[in-house]
Amino acid sequence: MKLSSLSSSSAAPHPLAPYGWDGDWETQFAPYAEQDLLPGRVVRVDRGQCDVVTAGGVLRADTAFVTPHDPLRVLCTGDWVAVEPGGNPRYVNAYLPRRTAFVRSTSSKRSEGQILAANVDHAVVAVSLAAELDLARVERFLALAWESGAQPLVVLTKADVVPHATTLGHLVQDVEAVAPGVPVLPVSAQRGDGLDVLEAVLSGGTSVLLGQSGAGKSTLANVLLGEEVMDVQATRDMDGKGRHTTTTRNLLVLPGGGVLIDTPGLRGVGLWDAESGVSQVFSEIEELAAECRFHDCAHVAEPECAVRRAVESGELSERRLESYRKLLRENEWIVAKTDARVRAERRQEWKRKGAEGRAAMEAKRGRLR
User: Fold this and answer.
1) What CATH fold (topology level) applies to the domain 101-262?
2) pTM for the full model?
3) Tens digits of residue pLDDT in 275-316
4) Where exactly does CATH 2.40.50.140 map onto the chain?
């Protein structure tokens, strides 16, 4: 083979590069490559099976080998996996360690976490301007986004329904005030406003699109993808809410570069061990708290409380402080409840092993008689 031919061949991009494959993933996959397994990325998970995009195309694989008891370790859209090259059915043998993971608490009473997307670079929180802004919900989404390890971005959809530019500017400022360090971008899928900026941001990696039903996520996804991939339903005029149009999490390549994971509308957004995320969202309160006289100040009636002083002076709103307290309480509750569950599971495991040990001892004694 000629040197020029070899150089040209080696410089060719990897077929999975559009899906986010890079040198680090290749290094981590090396042990599986030695086993003749195929690398691929999960584009959809559905009832014990998943669609995996590989260098040869999309294939269907069984997830029986990667379905542990821990719900945070089950296979998820965005995971990089090792797949068998053949067989009927094919199986996913393993998945590579995740760089980031967006996790929320389930709505069940079992205090379980649910992973929504893996290996995400940008967490895009879609907020509809067709309904009244719920700043507390924005703060909640951002806490989970920061905790995931991804860079949050708030996209204010349906900007075309806001009649005046001045009003739109005030709405943007309101959201910026509760999203320190987070870009806030108003967009209109109908008019195309702000889409060029959004496309430029999303072209650099994997993004997950999050938000309530009716936030305009499916419409926005279709515009970004350049085709009608996601179903869209009209929202109610009375409150701007809509029904779930996306029912699964799908990973799609954007024509301008980057990968987009669209998610179903989220009615419940419970925190899941997101203390650092809450601290990031309310960074100004954390900075003020460092100036309080007591390190464990509750910011209620303690003397020389810098946080209360900021509220009284108007520097900090009472609503924002209450939101901070609420999310901290919720996070502490879920962590404590989770720890209790783990302890209970361990006790059950000890009891099981103890029973097995006693049974084995009784059997041994029986043989000695």
Assistant:
1) Rossmann fold (3.40.50)
2) 0.81
3) 889 999 999 999 999 999 998 888 988 899 999 999 999 999
4) 13-95
